[in-house]
Amino acid sequence: MYHLQKNALKPKYTGARVTRKEDARLLTGASRYLDDIEIPGMYEIAFVRSQRSAARIRAIHLDAAQATPGVKRILTAKECPCFFGSAEDVANGVEQPALARDVVRYVGEPIVAIIAETRYAAEDAVERVQIDYEPLQPVLAMRESLLDQPRRVHEKTPNRMFHSEYQTSGFEDAFQAAPHHLVEVFQTHRQTGVPLETRGLAATIDPGSGRLTIYATHQSPHGLRGDMAVALGIEENELRVIVPEVGGAFGIKAHAYPEYLVVAYAALKYKLPVKWISDRTECLLTDVHARDDIHEVEVAFEGNGRILAIRDHLRADAGAYSAFPFCGAIGETVLASRVLTGPYTIPHLATTIDCTYSNKTPLGAYRGVWGPIASFVQEGIVDRVARALHLDPVEVRRVNMIPDELFPYTNAAGQAYDRGSYRASLEKALEMLNYDELRAQQKTLRDHGKYIGIGISAFVEPTAMAQSEAGSVPYESATIRIEPNGSVTAAFGLGPSGQGHETTMAQLIADELGVDLKDIVVLHGDTDSAPFGGGTGGSRSGPIGGGAALKAGRAMKEKLQTLASHLLEAAKEDVQLEDGKAFVAGVPTRNFSIRELAQVAYTDVLRLPEDFPVGLEVVARYQPKRPVTFSNGTHIAVVEVDAQTGMIEVLDYVVVNDCGRLINPLIVEGQIQGGVAQGLGSAYLEELRYDDQGQVTTTTLADYLLPVATEVPRMRIAHLETPSSGEGGFKGMGEGSLIASPAAFANAVSDALEPFAFMVSALPVTPDQILAAIDRSRDS
Ligand code: SMO
C-alpha cells in the first residue's frame, strides 16, 4: 500500500483535478521554445542530405556553395569527424557518422553542413552543392536483408544486427497437444512521432570560461549532456544543456541525432553561436521512424477459447543504423516479446527475434515503443480465436484473463505483473458501453447494410522501468529548497514536453509541506541547476519522478518539523504542517509560519537547534523496488465501415484506465485523449511509405496523414485505482492509451467486416484494403 502517515491530513492536492500551472503560458504563446532562442551573432545551419538510399560518394563539389553570399563555413565528414555508436552498432563494428563519410545509407542522411548568416543563405548554398554518386542496390526488405540480400548495408557486417530466441519449457508438447491451431502474419508500418515542434539544436561557447552551452529540444537533459560530451571529447562540466519549453517529444526526442553533433562541433571548432531547426520534411525523413515490424504467429488453443501457446517470429527493420542511444528495432521486438501474452494467463510462449539493417531511416522510440505492436498482435490473436470458435470475443477474454487471486502474476516471458484491475476493467468497459444491447443492434443494422463493429483491447502497460537495461537510469532525483522568504523551489532531472510535471510534482510537494500550490516553483531542463536524472520516457515521470518528489517533500517536512519543534518547545511528532504554517497539533495558535522558519534557517541562525544545518535544502532519489510497474485497462472502440467507400468512422470510444493512485485525473485524461488520437492515427492514417528505390514518398503532412479533430472521437473515460507497491502507489500512464487503441480500432474494423470474412492483419487499415477484402469476399 502507498505511504500514508498516521496523523496525515487528507491530501489537498493529490488526486484532485488541479488545473495545470503551465497552461497559462502555453496557451497564450508566452513560452520560449528552441527556435525562440536568440544568441547575438548567431549563424544558422542547413544540411545537404542524401537523395539516394544507397550509394558511394564519388565527389562533393562545394565551389558554388562557397561563393554563395552569407556563407561562413562548410563542413563535410573531413571537417567534422564525430560519430555516434549505440551499443548494438558498436557490437556490430558500425559507427553512425555525424556527416556521411564515403557511403550514404538512407535518403535524408546528412552529408554536408552549411553555416551561413541566415537560413535562407544556407539553403541557397545547399542547392548549389553537387554530389557525384555511384548508386548501389538498396536493401529494403526484411526477409531478404536477413540473408544479406541483395547486399550488405555495412560492407563488413552481416545485415542481421540482432537475434534472440526464447521458449517456455514444455512448449512443443503443449503446442502439439492442443486441439486447435491458427496462423497469422501481423504487420505494422513505419510511422513517426511528429511533435508539433520540430527537433533541432543551438550551441554557443561562453567566451570567458570556454564552456559549451547547448539548447536542445529533448527528453533527457542529463542523458544528452553525457552522450554529447563523449562524442565531442569534452568533460561533462564543460557542457551545459538547457532544454527550453518542448513542444511534444513522444520518444523521438529521447534520441541524439547526427545533426546535433555537427551543430555542437561547429560551435566548438569555429567558436561561433550556431543553430539548426529541422523543417517538417526533414522531420518526416530523419526523425527516428518506428513500428516497422512483422510478426509470424502460430497459436494453439482449446475449444472453449483457452489459449495454450503462442509462437511468434518477430522481425523489425532497424534502418541503416541502430538509432542512438538505443535501437528502436530491438526495443520494439525484445520488449514486445515480454508482453505478448498481455493480460492473459497464456502458459506457453516461444519467440524468435531478428532485427536487420536496411537502407532506411533508423528505427527509434515512439510513444509506447513495443506496446502498440504487442497489443495489436495479442488482441488480434484473441479475436481470431473467438472467430474460429464462433465465440463472443468477450467470452474468450473472460476465459483467458488473469484472475485476481493470481496476482502478483508472472507471465510466460517471466515478467512480474503488479496487482491490477484486469477483470474489473473489462467488465466496467462493457458496462459503460452497454455491450449486450449494442451487439443486438449490430445484428439488426447489418440486415440493413450498415456495418458497425465493436473492438475490445485489454492491455498491460509496462511503466517505470527501474532496471539499468540499455544504460537507462533506474531512479529519479528531486531537490527542494525553501528560499529565505519561505517560497519553495523544487528541481527535477525530468524532461517534460507538455505532460504537466510542474503541476503534478508541485501537487505532491505542496501536500507534504502543507503549502499552497502557487508558492512552489518547479524547475527542470538545465543541467547546471537540475539534479542528475534520467529524464522523461517509458512512462516513468509520474511513478519514479513522483516518488522522488514525495521523498524530497518528506525529507523537507522532517526538517521543518525538527526546527519548529525546537522553536515551539513541543515534541516533533506533534508538529503538523498546514496552510503554510507549522503548529502544535490541536493548538493551531502555537505556530511558526514557513516564512518565519526560513528566516531562522538562513539569517537568525543562532536560534537553530544544535547540529541543524544552516539553510533549508534537501535532495532525494527514488528507485522503485520492482523492475517494472504494470498499469492496465480496457479500451473499446465502436466503428462504422462504409462498404461502398471503405471509409471508417469511429462512433464511440470507451476507456477504463488503472494507473494506480491518481495524482491528477485531469492530466491523466489529457494523456489518454492524446494517446487515443495518436493510436487512431497509427491504426488508419499515418504511414511513411518507401518506393522500390528506398525513396520516402510521404515527406509532407499532405501525404503523411495525421488525425485531426474530426477523426478523434469524444471518449468516455473511467478510472480504477489499484495502487502500486511503490512510493505513492503511482503507476505510469503516458503510453497505455496509445498501446491499447490501435488494437481496439483494428478489432472493431475486423468485427464490422465479419460478414466479409475479413480480419485486419496489417496497419494502417486503408479504404483500399477494405474494398479489396469486400471484393474478394463477394467473388468467392
Ligand atoms: S517512446 Mo518514450 O520516450 O518512452
Could you give a quick summary of the protein structure above?
The protein has 780 residues and is of the alpha+beta class.
Structural description of this entry:
Pfam families: Ald_Xan_dh_C, MoCoBD_1, MoCoBD_2. The protein is built from 20 helices and 30 strands. The protein is of the alpha+beta class and 780 residues long. It folds into three domains: 43-136 and 195-249 and 252-286, Aldehyde Oxidoreductase, domain 3, CATH 3.90.1170.50; 293-402 and 422-467 and 626-779, Aldehyde oxidase/xanthine dehydrogenase, molybdopterin binding domain (Aldehyde Oxidoreductase, domain 4, 2-Layer Sandwich); 475-622, Aldehyde oxidase/xanthine dehydrogenase, molybdopterin binding domain (Aldehyde Oxidoreductase, domain 4), CATH 3.30.365. Strands 3-7-1-14-11-12-13 form a seven-stranded mixed beta sheet, with helices on both faces. Strands 9-17-16-15-10 form a five-stranded mixed beta sheet, with helices on both faces. A four-stranded mixed beta sheet has the order 20-28-29-30, sandwiched between helices. Helix 11 (371-389) runs parallel beside helix 19 and helix 18 packs across helix 19. The radius of gyration is 28 Å and the shape is globular. It starts with 22 loop residues before the first helix and ends with a helix. Residues 1-8 have low confidence and may be disordered. The chain binds dioxosulfidomolybdenum(VI) ion (SMO). The site of dioxosulfidomolybdenum(VI) ion (SMO) has 9 residues, from loops. Dioxosulfidomolybdenum(VI) ion is lined by residues 219, 251, 254, 365-367, 369, 537-538.
